[in-house]
Amino acid sequence: MIARLALLGLALTGAASAAPVSTHVQAIRNGTRSPQIVPLTEGEQLAIGWLFVTGDPSSAFCTGTLVSPTVVVTAAHCTRTRFAESIGFGIGMLPEDPVATFTVARVDNHPSADVDASFLHLSEPVTARVPGLQPLPINRHPIGGADGDVLLGRQVEVAGFGDTRDPLQTGRFFASVTLIEINDAFVVVDGEGLQGLCFGDSGGPVLTLNAVGDAVLLGVEHGGDDTCVGRDLLTRLDALGEFVEAAVPSGAGEPAPLAEPGGPCEDLTFQGRCVGDFVEWCDESGRVARLDCALHGRVCGYIDQDTGYYCTTEKICAPGETGDCRGVAPGTAGFVAPGARSARFRGGCEAVDAPTGAPWLLALLLLWVRPRRSRTRRTGNRVMRVGERRGGGHADAPSAMARGPCGHVGLFDRSRRSARSHRRRRHAGKLG
After folding, report:
1. CB crowding 147-179: b at 16 or more within 10 Å, else e
2. Best CA proximity match to 168, nearest among 400, 397, 402
3. CA distances, 198 to each of 107, 156, 326, 384 (Å)
């Protein structure tokens, strides 16, 4: 598990010298099937897909993210030497077993060769064939100055279909890395010897939570050091205002449609999701349940890993407002504030404000944790093209049961459903 890997990583990083950063070389190492830091619905996870050579969906060579039903953002080094008709886009966990594949009608590379970002315009809306898919919005809030300081030192989520260095572990993986720097061109993250991006993750997203707890895309993978567990550079998207606006006009993101109450859950999980002021989730009978939080003077929000999404008793803070509210606390600008207040949005995996003074207890606790199998992306069974360096996809073996961000049994486990139902009923009793 990640915690145990942390002990090993601390020992290794203390002894190893820093590896040089190389460009265009990205896949997740030591990752997990589910997000660890940023809670994503299954529909949002589907928005993270792969680029492949037309006619061969398993030939993944880069990662991309749907930011609208017809637009994918990726790295320009993945697309500059290719024509639109030679690129396909796939969604699902495994390139060998795609949920759906799509053709590309147009490629828009950034006009500057120094900016590693491009947009793929698909030939049809993905949501027409995969209704449950939810595109992930691009962060447009400036992060280059004081407004971005709140993100420094924060754990953020990266994802991709790259090399795991384990031929049995392929497909889409997520990893938790630390955001250590924001400069004019890049968001810089560090896996600190534990996790990170690798070959084939190029173009993949770095995600965090905005002021209201929604996942937003800060940048796309450009390149990193060859260990795949060190520093990586991701092209800042907020700095590409006109280029982003031309591809995805503000407000163009299509919100998830409301599910039919009492109908089958399909992609909706028991963790649930917010659709505007509504919260909807899959109840213990396998049917869609919905509640209008606004009728109770509340907002929909992520409560915690055990409860999922529900009407929260806290309201959204106005700029500069303090008190019984969440979100835009003073000095946090457009992002969830660090510390215990924001831990509720982070999937319940991260210890916040842990007590000090008993490090031996923490060490014992970590030793009890069963280690996860190391993930490294494969390159040995595919031919790398000249100039690609690290830029080939990875596919993952499907897990028998969905797992939560901390390795918990998935969202359809009935005992967890029952417990979540109890928690939601408890929250409902407070809505009055």
Report:
1. bbebbeebbbbbbbbbbbbbeebbbbbbbbbbb
2. 397
3. 24, 16, 35, 14
Burial 295-324 (b: 16+ CB within 10 A, else e): eeebbbbbbebebbbbbbbebebeeeeeee
Q: What is the pLDDT of residue 282?
A: 87
Burial 358-390 (b: 16+ CB within 10 A, else e): eeeeeeeeeeeeeebeebbbbbeebeeeeebbb
Assigned token pair, 119: 């947009």
For the segment 214-245, what is each residue's pLDDT rounded down to a tens digit?
899 999 999 887 777 888 899 999 999 999 99
Torsions phi, psi for 336 (to 5 deg): -60, 135
For the chain, what is the mean pLDDT? Answer: 71
pLDDT tens digits, one per residue of 359-383: 343 343 333 333 322 233 333 333 2
Do 382 and 9 touch, CB atoms closer than 8 A?
Answer: no
- State in Å, rounded, how far the first CA of the chain is from the last one: 41
Q: Is the pLDDT of residue 39 over 70?
A: yes
Q: CA 35, CA 81: separation in Å to the nearest integer?
A: 32
